Amino acid sequence: MDPSPLFYQAGPALPEVSHAQGVYLWDENGRQYLDGCSGAISCNLGHGRDDIREAMLAQLDRVAFTYRTQFENAPAVALAKTLVGITQHQLEKVFFVSSGSEAVESALKLARQYFVVRGEPQCRRFVSLRPSYHGSTLGALGVTGYQPLEAPFRDIAIGSLKVAGPDFYRHDDADDNRHVARVLANTRAAIEAAGPDTIAAFVLEPVGGASTGARMLDRSYLTDIRALCDEFGCLLILDEVLTGIGRTGAWFAYQHYGVTPDLLSTAKGLGAGYYPVGAVLSRADIVETVMASGGFQHGHTYAGNPLACATGLAVVEAIERDKVLDNVVARGRQLAAGLEALKARFPWIGDVRGLGLLWGVELVADAATKAPFPAEQNRFARITALAREEGLLIYPRRTLDGMAGDHFLITPPLTIDAADTAELLTRLERAMQRFDRELA
Ligand code: PLP
Question: Which domain of life is it from (predicted)?
Answer without folding.
Answer: Bacteria
